[in-house]
Amino acid sequence: MPIRIIIAEDESLIRMDLKEELQRQGYLVVGDVGDGESAVNLARELRPDLVFMDIRMPHMDGISATEVLTREKIAPVLMLTAFSDQELIDRAKEAGVIHYLTKPWRQSDLRPAIEVALARFQEFRAMETRVKDLEDLLATRKVVEKAKGLLMQKQGLSEQEAFRRIQKLSMNNRKSMREVAEAILLTNTIGDL
Q: Which residues neighbour 99 within 8 Å (Cβ) at sequence distance 6 or greater?
């Protein structure tokens, strides 16, 4: 499937030229708009693979629009702008821009910029997933440790026996060890399970 792109550029001639070039290179331009607010709304609706975003646009600038798209995890943003001052670059980085190109763009710049932006975005997504998995694992470990401690205290079990009790309850009840441990802590006694 072709890569689906939205273009947000307030200058209609630049927007049209960019759209034609992206289509010529085999990308699917699913929408083009002239302001940041419309870019956010269209991206929410269409969920593109990438958004080309100008910085200075009416209603909502490109950096503010990027902040929304990044926060809502809608799509990566490739900033395409005539501005290259450090303050704007810093704001773009903080907003979550994946790649930054300056105008005038060249045909040969587009494919590498798109490919790198999409690769970085996939890496960020994979890293987010990994972090979430590790956070869940840590939270599970903490609650299981607390439940083990409670079982050891209330029932005089060894650490290994308490762990096996939680493990067995987990298998018998077809619940995760975390759910069993939370239930133990909630009821404050194993006998109520």
A: 78, 79, 113, 116, 117, 120
Length of the chain: 193
pTM, to two decimals:
0.74
Residue spans of the chain under pLDDT 50? 190, 193
Q: How far is it, in rounded angstroms, from Cα 148 to Cα 62?
A: 52
CA distances from 131 to 124, 126, 127, 184 (A): 10, 9, 6, 27
Question: CA–CA separation, 35 vs 46, rounded Å?
Answer: 16
Complete domains list, the chain, with CATH: 4-105 (3.40.50.2300), 131-192 (1.10.10.10)
Per-residue pLDDT of 63-76, as tens digits, reads 999 999 999 999 99
The torsion region of residue 36 among left (phi > 0), alpha (psi -120 to 50) and beta comes to: alpha
Query: What tens digit of pLDDT does each residue of 67-109 get?
Result: 999 999 999 999 999 988 899 899 999 999 999 998 988 999 9
Q: How far apart are CA 34 and CA 89, in angstroms?
A: 21
